Amino acid sequence: MARRWWTLPLLLVSALAPSFSLAGLAFENTAIVRTIELGGSLVHVSTTYAVKALEPGQSTYQIALSKAERAKTSWLEAKVKGQTTPLELNEDESSTEHLLFVSLPKALAVNGTLNLVLETVQTHATHPFPEQATQKEPQLLKYETDLFTISPYTTLVQRTKIKSITPNVISYTTPHDVDSFVRDGSVTKSGGTITYGPYHDVQTDTDFVAKYQQSISVHYSFDYPVLEAETLHRTAEISHWGSNLNIEDKIHLHNAGPTLKGHFSRLEYQSQIYHRRQAPHILSDFTLHLPPGVTNAYFYDQNGNVSTSHLRTAPSVAKGSKAMQYSVLELRPRYPVLGGWNYSYTIGFDTPLQDSVGYDVKNGIYVVGVPVMTNIPGTVVNNAEVKIILPEGATNIKSVSPFPELSNSMSTHISYLDTAGRPAVTFTYKDLTYKHAGIIYVSYQVPLSAHLKKAVSVGAAFFSLFAFAFMARRVDLNLHKK
What is this structure's pTM? Predict the structure, then answer.
């Protein structure tokens, strides 16, 4: 294992060496502060770069991520500190997908300064340690990362803060061979925060990384279940005749915490609930925020309807309103979900169509907005499929995803009372987090003939049935007249 820690930085910097040599003279990092907020399935990382331009007219800043860090990063965003508008961010495919180019809001003059913030969300970055636990034992997780923040530019000072939501930190790594870069100590702990650095005059070239870069880890207690949605299949069906948008989610939930050691004791579980000392790695219930104005909500699993749920509905709001209202759905699975256990379930609900669909009268275009997912707090969705079923006869279909998808495709969905079927747009995603809770917009047109097609088809079917019955009553099947 030690050999891999030393050889990975060598491979990383050798791949980036040409880019680093070109970028290293343009800027200087007066300071880098990386803050890591530990969690379960999700880890939030915020890195602030205090940038100083060394050459005139610099408008693009480069950020480097190690291969391991980029692989576990599912969401990233760069912006100027104190501002909310994200900056344009491009990724260099030729440099093994770990060099980011940030377009600055304006070119910096010589000695011009700017504070940039790179926010990322990491998934599958922690693992239970130990891997097994009884119902009474706490849940302990382990997180690993690199000591130094890689950058194409010289860094005058940098530090890394790792924060746990509880002060119960079991252990953490003490760096070695870094005395020449520290003045007050290489690592300190205060409550649930471990601070590495500050480290001075850091130049992350090949020699430096090969000699000083090292892996650090934090072993900590986490008091919430570590949840992963292995699969999410969302189906959104638009009905103009019913004037509603139906959304159904089929979810396969997995508790990625430490697996149960020994047998499950219902008596022990009830005792923990009574004394309000439930083990943190047991999922007994969770809460979902649904859109306002939902109706006909349902919740069932493989055994049938689950009655241990409660819905508090908020009134419907107009489309485009900034009101922060939402309906609250409290779900209690049929059984407690312990570490290593799975739970598959289906939830569905209807919302008024006018809350999600707009209509351009001039061009005859409908625009519908469908949420990518309903966020389960602290959960990563490993694989997601969102299928949007449009009305029968919809044409000129265009769609926009809030972030890049793995794939999208068109298909035909056949349902009851359909003639030719309904067009459907399907999107697939991977490693979704609460940051991905955006809206997919789909525009389409439905001609008047398509609106009337279903009514005419149903009317023709009933007319044919009545005509057949009318003729059948007049057919005499007797062989002899009376």
Answer: 0.85
